[in-house]
Amino acid sequence: MSAVLLFGIFFALLFLNVPIAMSLGVSSIITTMAVKPAMMSTIAANLYSSTNTYVLLAIPFFILAGNIMDVSGISVRLINFFNSLVGHTKHGTAMVCVIVACFFAAISGSGPATVAALGGILIPAMSKSGYEKDTSAALMSTAGAIGIVIPPSITFVVYGSVTGTSVGDLFMAGIIPGILIGVAIYFTMVISSRGCNLVRQPKASGKERWKAFGDAVWGILMPVIILGGIYGGIFTPTEAAAVSAIYGLIVGMFIYKTLRFKEIVVILRQSVSQTAVVMLIIGCAAVFGKVLTFTGLASDASQSLISIAHGNKYTFLLMVNIILIIAGCFIDANSALYILCPILFPIAKTLGIDAVHLGAVMTVNLALGLITPPVGVNLFTGCGVAGITLTDMVKKIWPFVIAVLIVLLLVTYIPQISTILPSLMVK
Q1: What is the distance of C-alpha 155 from the center of its chain?
Q2: According to the model, what pLDDT value does residue 427 have?
């Protein structure tokens, strides 16, 4: 009865286009009132405590740093630099799209932000090079999904907060899977564009490349400073987020000189707005997860999964993938983590699955959710930037979805892909 009420109200509100935070919150409150009214007094406390954690302080700072570097013009400089290196090759523009997406992901930590910042430049550039516009938009949307896998990743921060796993280890775990996704979608683009009359750009001279590098070096250094500081023991991931925001401000104001006080005010407002949306979703999702716990739904679901898996961790991981792929089609990554981690994480520990490995598997799954309809945020962002319909995008996105699925299977069943770098750092 509790499950029918909780999930019935939640999905009914979702299909009525009620914002996901409100859908989570309202369904939780109504279920609590109907099943266990005495727990109503704990809802506000749970909402507050779920967002009042030191680890989650990294989120507003990473959002702020990404917005600062975007307005500072770092995206354009990164594109120009990598274009000078590989733009003259046959599929150079597509390669630039993937490489720059990986670098910008290491600045913004967000999938939609990566698509929005780069798509306006790269989608027209790919179209000009001979690629179909909707295929170019599909590549850009998928490349943007790398944003939640490559560190620093807001999704890894949330997973670390929910499960108590080291955020630094999770950041390292995302590097190889992120690169593999980039390689997979690049070759998917190469295969998809067979028959297109591609135009090669002129090869840049050494002087042009050096100048482009000089313009982009401050952006390239940002992820180096963030990750180097974390793994060098200089600061924590949360402190690294604050350092990245200050670094971006210094670069924008005093090196690139593209930031003025008036623009900083706009950036702060935008960052506060984006942070509020994320934190409200996290708070409401945490309350939803709490309802799952005190109604016994989480325990029942855990027992059912263990029974179905027969204690086999490989079967369990397959079930995790199926559950998350379906969940990713309807809810955002942060909500999925707060709802599903209380169910899946204890089972994984019982079966001896490494917490960092599970985090990588879940995050790649949720990256896939960014490009799968009906609620793939990157799809809508890519459509808006490219000026195409969702129908056009969906027709071209499936080869890229398959490419990410292949990487997901590799990450799922070869744990070393995600655990080797964290283990090396420990040594």
Answers
A1: 6
A2: 47
